[in-house]
Amino acid sequence: MGTDGQVESAPGREGENMTDIQEFIEAPGRAEQVAEIQRRIEVEGIQYLYCQFVSVTGRIMGKGIPAKHFATIANKGFQLVYGSTANLFVDRHGQYIGYGPESRELVGVAETETFCKLPWDSKTARVFCTLFRGREEEVDGGAFLSSDCRGNLQRIHKAFEE
Length: 162
Known about the structure:
The protein is of the alpha+beta class. It has one domain: Roll (Ubiquitin-like (UB roll)). It has four helices and eight strands. The strands form two sheets. Strands 3, 4, 5, 6, 7 and 8 form a six-stranded mixed beta sheet that branches. The chain has a two-stranded antiparallel sheet with strand order 1-2. The chain is globular and about 45 Å long.
């Protein structure tokens, strides 16, 4: 983060600036961590993965996926509606309150260091995710999502330590 609180981009390939999501996914050592977790999933027979994040009200929210797709969500992410960070609700007719079907989607990317097999269900694991704005957005595409409470705390804590 810059001194004015704005997100700065790191130099990318051939002089291009990398987005926050690219930096996160291409962090040194991450590819090896993803491969090791994928190996554990296969060896330990883990079948399901719960991709978790914290809502703005502090609830742990998430999305369940087949564990064999871990490498995909670690390297590309998965999509969620923005309302999911605000405890998305539906009315009695099943219509989203506050977010229509045309709403943009955010991207959640697995944090490899948080992968953990659940002790009460050996076929299920969980991983926390960092949230980003959609890559295709015209303004700040691929930037850290400002309503990602856990991600914000991690970045602020890191800046404080520096």
